[in-house]
Amino acid sequence: MSQPPSPSQGQFMPNGRPRPGAPSSAAGSPSQPQYRDYGNPKAYDTSVRPASGLTAARYAPAQIQRPDQAQPQSAWATQTRRVQEVAQHAKEVPVVSIATWLALITLGMATIIVLGLFFLSFVMNVKSRVSLRVCG
User: Fold this and answer.
1) Per-residue pLDDT in tens (0 to 9) along the chain, 136 residues
2) Is there a contact between 26 and 11 (Cβ–Cβ < 8 Å)?
3) How much is the pTM?
4) Do residues 102 and 96 make contact, with C-beta atoms less than 8 angstroms apart?
5) Are 43 and 61 contacting, i.e. CB atoms less than 8 angstroms apart?
6) What is the C-alpha to C-alpha distance for residues 77 and 51, in angstroms, rounded to an integer?
7) Per-residue pLDDT tens digits for 24-50
8) What angle do CA 30, 32, 38 make, to 5 degrees?
9) Distance (Å, whole) CA 130 – CA 57
10) How far apart are CA 81 and CA 70, in angstroms?
11) How many helices (H) and strands (E) does the chain have?
12) Collapsing DSSP states into helix, strand and coil, what is residue 96?
């Protein structure tokens, strides 16, 4: 049979919980934090369980693949190689872009000149009509 807890062990168990049958608030007992007993912690530890085939493959270390080209050992080597690759290609002059901009500038200037001439013609015609009315 189970024996009742001896008074020498106190009102609390080693894990901090009150002993069964102990008064809920003992006078003079220190205020201790309430601990929750979740049972066996190893039951929640997934690292010790054997993994299935899919899980093992998912968490397996990645396969090491050798790159197609030999990789340089430093950033300086990478930059030097890139500069050499770029230097091999001659720069093309953007003829289409330059021609497009020149055509747009020319059309813009022509539009401004034509509008200015129409405005000048309008002003001259209005002046001549006003002068004819005053004189006539």
Assistant:
1) 455 555 445 677 778 777 777 766 545 555 666 777 777 666 666 665 565 666 666 666 777 777 777 766 777 888 888 888 888 887 788 888 999 999 999 999 999 999 999 999 999 988 887 776 666 5
2) yes
3) 0.33
4) no
5) no
6) 44
7) 654 555 566 677 777 766 666 666 556
8) 150
9) 96
10) 12
11) 3, 0
12) helix
Q: List the structure tokens of 101.
A: 């901009």
Mean pLDDT of the chain: 76
50 neighbors 36 (Cβ within 8 angstroms): no
Task: Burial-class residue 12 by CB neighbours within 10 Å (0-12, 13-18, 19+).
Answer: middle
End-to-end CA distance of the chain: 139
H or E stretch including 116?
helix 95-135
Residue with tokens 């050798």: 66
Max CA separation in the chain (angstroms): 139
DSSP 8-state secondary structure symbol assigned to residue 133? H
